[in-house]
Structure formats: C-alpha cells, structure tokens
Specification:
- By secondary structure, the protein is an all-alpha fold.
- The chain has a single domain, classed as Ribonucleotide Reductase, subunit A.
- The protein has 13 helices and no strands.
- The radius of gyration is 19 Å and the shape is globular.
- The two termini are 29 Å apart.
- The mean pLDDT is 93.
- Bound molecules: fe (ii) ion (2 copies).
- One fe (ii) ion binds next to α5 and α8.
Length: 292
C-alpha cells in the first residue's frame, strides 16, 4: 500500500468518524417483526430441536447469542488494543503506520464501548471467558511477535466482517444491532485493508516454517472465537429440557454453519500466501471442517 492510500484511509477516519453515540438509534424498541440475530447465524437453526422452539424461545436464543458474539468481539478488541499500544511505542509521529494505528485504536475503543452499550441495551448477561481463554489471551499478547499478533487480529476482524455483512443487510434485524453491524463493518473494512497489506511484507518473504506458524495463528484465533459463541448455559436460560444434548447438537451444527458462513474469505487469504501445507491442512479440516 503506498503512502497516498494510507493517507486516504487516515483522512476518512478523521473526517468521517462514525460515532456510536449518534449513529446508533439507541432508543428504538424491538418491533414485532424484528429479531436480534439473523436466524441462520443462530447455533440451533437447521436442527430438529429448533423446530420445537416457540417464537419467544427463538427470539431469546438470538438475544443471548448476539450478546455472546458482541462480548467476544469486545474482548478480542481489548486484547488487540493492549498489544497495539505496546507496538506503537516504538514508532515515530511522522510514521504513517503510526498515524493509521492511532486512528484504528480510537475506533477499536469506540467499538468496545458500542458493544458494551448494546449488551446493556439488550439486558444481556454474557457468559464471560473461561480461565483457559484468559490465559491464552494474556500469554500470546505478551509473547508472540507482532507479525503473528497482526495475523491473529486480522482473523478476528475478518470473522466480524462476515457477521457485519449479514447483519447490516437484514431489514428485520433490530435497528440498534443493524446499525452496530453496519458501523463496525464500515470501519473494519479499512482495518482489514491496511492489515492485509502490511502483512504482505511478512508473508511474501516467509519460508515454510513461518507460513506454518501464521496458518496456525489464524486457525487458533478463529477456533477460540467460535468456541466463545456456543454456550450450554444459553439453552438452559431459554428453557430447553436437555441443555447438554442441545449443546452437543448445536456445537456440531454451528461448526458447519460457521464454515459455510464465515470461512470463505479467510481460506482464500491463507491460501494466497500458501498457508495450507502438509503440517497445517489436517488441522484446518479437523477443527474448522474447511475443505482445503
Ligand atoms: Fe472493531
Ligand atoms: Fe479493527
């Protein structure tokens, strides 16, 4: 990406900031024909259990699951800010990368606040991250080199971009959430553009070993994000009789949906720098059901 393009991205961020305070119609109430999450993104849609749920239970399933999704993004973004704050300490003010990353940080902090406000607006009670997630998040942010951390952040942004694309187009989605998805989608598109490009300088000269590491970083980030979405407690909350069984069925169902709905561009990206090889391919197939 040349300097003119980076300057253009910085200018858009400065001159057309999307402020959640005014961009989101916070006061709107949910209408009778609206829902909180497009049905095809819920964990149970497509299973036999889903057909037995009442409309109220389906609505509640969507509410709890979108709360979980937004909570996961906010958590992932706060890790991103932690790492990015350290990274920019070494950059000079006249450096364009520094200037862009400052704008990105500002936007990511706004996103975290937007997700938090949305969770509160929905009366949501997210199931917080497990100790394992917390540990892995803290350790990787501390220990991994910055190219890997950029790779990891990009994977999360690409997943959230897919959700954003589905959400912003769905006219029956509760307007507060539709606008949240839309805002996030617009700003993340710029982050993705920048990060993909800056990662090129690492991926083009990466040898077999490094490409293998990058591929696993992408895979594990997406895998961990996905495991934050499907939660047994949600099935208890909406009054499903056997939440253990529902959890098993939903996990399998959601894995397939996630592969269908969210993985396409990620697979393309990993393939573009030859991230699928004899050491990584099996893991992508096994954990993500990816056809690679
Ligand atoms: Fe974000
Ligand atoms: Fe971002």
């Amino acid at each position: 990406m040349d300097n003119i393009e980076i300057e253009r991205l910085i200018r858009i961020s400065r001159e057309k900031p999307l402020l959640p305070e005014t961009y989101i119609p916070w006061k709107d109430e949910l209408q009778a024909n609206e829902y909180y999450l497009p049905q095809h993104l819920t964990s149970l849609e497509g299973t036999a259990i889903y057909k037995t749920l009442s409309n109220k239970q389906k609505l509640e399933l969507g509410r709890h699951e979108i709360v979980q999704v937004m909570y996961s993004y906010a958590w992932g973004e706060s890790l991103f800010c932690l790492f990015m704050n350290k990274y920019i300490l070494n950059l000079a003010p006249d450096n364009l990368e520094y200037q862009f990353l400052l704008r990105e940080l500002i936007e990511e902090f706004r996103h975290q606040e937007m997700f938090t406000q949305s969770i509160l607006r929905l009366g949501g009670k997210p199931i917080t991250i497990s100790r394992a997630h917390r540990f892995i998040g803290a350790v990787t942010t501390k220990l991994l080199p910055h190219d890997c951390l950029f790779m990891g952040s990009l994977s999360i942004e690409m997943v959230s971009d897919r959700y954003g694309n589905y959400g912003k187009k769905d006219l029956n989605l509760y307007p507060v959430l539709r606008k949240v998805f839309e805002l996030h989608n617009i700003e993340e598109a710029r982050h993705i553009l920048f990060t993909k490009d800056m990662l090129k300088k690492y991926t083009t000269k990466a040898g077999f070993l490094r490409r293998t590491v990058y591929s696993y970083v992408m895979l594990f980030n997406i895998y961990f994000l996905r495991t934050l979405y499907v939660k047994k407690e949600i099935y208890q909350r909406i009054g499903i009789e056997n939440p253990d069984a529902a959890y098993k069925i939903a996990s399998k169902n959601y894995k397939e949906k996630f592969t269908q709905n969210c993985l396409g561009e990620i697979v393309e990206f990993v393939d573009s720098w030859r991230g699928f090889n004899g050491v990584t391919r099996w893991a992508w197939r096994w954990l993500m059901g990816a056809k690679v």
